[in-house]
Structure prediction request, 277 residues.
Amino acid sequence: MAIRSVAIQGERGSNSHMAALQMLGDVEIVPCTLSAQVLDAVVSGAVDAAVLPIENSLHGSVAEHYDLLLEMPVRIDAEGQLRIRHNVIAAPGVTLAEVKTVLSHPVALSQCRRWLAAHSGLRATPFYDTAGSVKHLMQEGLRDVAGIAPALAAKEYGAEILVEGIEDHHENFTRFHLLRRDDRPSDVRSTDKLSVAFIVEHRPGTLVAALQKLAAAGADLTKIESRPVPGKPWEYVFYVDFRFDGEDRADAALAALHTECRSVKELGRYASARSKQ
Prediction:
């Protein structure tokens, strides 16, 4: 089934918007305030799919999105990697000398510390969204305020880029998941990566045993993440990503997990982003 509409968390012009365009081409973007609303839109059928960030190479994992993957009836159909570039963006005709305040999401501000330190006369102020900062300054006609946001935000809201690429580290990537309702037909034809969540018994050695089973089945583990089990203090859900060579090997790895774990949920099989680069 073709994907025509995609929900994202945040405003149009955000990195999630850019990731959706990179993964899917020209689709309708439906902005949502909260990540839970994004997946609610998928589950209700209001949109065909969602694109959500799952991990940044500098900031780490997006914990809330792991929780939602376990809780909601959705599956991962694809992943993408987006190079994150932060730009100083203001209303047309504004110069950097006129700017007194810089708005952006706290994570973006933290990734631009060196540039902000070198421009100590600017007041860095947290805002709810990177692209939202540009939308705000344009809607309000602010000429002493700039946003730190993706280049797409300037195009989306008719603003101008004053300074390009102010991020501290150029090797800054975010990994995104394309999510669909788990009962919808899959368009995925070639897969080499699987994401799964599992819970082991709370006793010594159970996690080691589960990981040994994966290794014996030939799974190439690329990521492991733990999140608390709601209502069970100090117990954890483990999320793993692994690459595999052939569906039989993936099935064997899952079967092996079932022998060692209290519960197992397959989150999706898809083509790894690295294989597309």
Remarks:
- The radius of gyration is 21 Å.
- The chain has a mean pLDDT of 93.
- The first strand starts at residue 5 and ends at 9.
